[in-house]
Amino acid sequence: MTAARKKLVIKVTAGSDAPERCSQAFTVAAVAVASGVEVSLWLTGESAWFALPGRAAEFELPHAAPLPDLIESIRADGQITLCTQCATRREITEKDVIEGVRIAGAQVFVQEIMADGVQALVY
């Protein structure tokens, strides 16, 4: 019998407006994925822009891993979700986002964080 895989849900609200907080969220998500943890990263607020192609490449923070690399590692084995309301406010649709990013709302977020064995973080 194998142990259930642990899940980590991370909600990142910061973008270029708070680069250290933003980078921390993506870094924690990428490290968790690399450690075998099931990860669901939610892009809300200003981080919503990173669901668009090329936007992560514009992000810079000295001594931090490049955001495009972190996103790729998260997408490889994790789930990235763009908040429905955040997408709507920014006129972002499913056809606009990078491959593998889904758009979902609060109901899905609540379902994820209320599941057994889930840990949630907000940045």
CATH topology: Hypothetical Protein Ychn, Chain: A
Largest sheet geometry: 5 strands, parallel
Q: What is the CA–CA distance across the termini?
A: 35 Å
Strand content is 15-25%
Named CATH architecture: 3-Layer(aba) Sandwich
Rg for CA atoms? 14 Å
Structural class: alpha/beta
Order of helices and strands: EHEHEHEHE
Low-pLDDT windows of residues? none
- CATH top level is Alpha Beta
Shape type: globular
Q: State the strand order across the main sheet.
A: 4-3-2-1-5
What is the average of the pLDDT values? Answer: 95
What is the subunit organization of this protein? single chain
- How many structural domains can be distinguished in the coordinates? 1
Portion in helices: 25-40%
Determine the CATH superfamily: DsrEFH-like
Compute the number of strand runs: 5
Walk me through what this model shows:
It is globular and about 35 Å long. The chain has a 5-stranded parallel beta sheet, sandwiched between helices. The protein has helices at 19-34, 67-77, 84-89, 106-114; strands at residues 7-12, 38-43, 79-83, 101-104, 118-122. It is an alpha/beta fold. It has one domain (7-122): 3-Layer(aba) Sandwich (Hypothetical Protein Ychn, Chain: A), CATH 3.40.1260. It starts with 6 loop residues before the first strand and ends with a strand. Helix 1 (19-34) links the parallel strand 1 and strand 2. InterPro entries: DsrEFH-like, Sulphur_relay_DsrE/F-like. This is DsrE family protein.
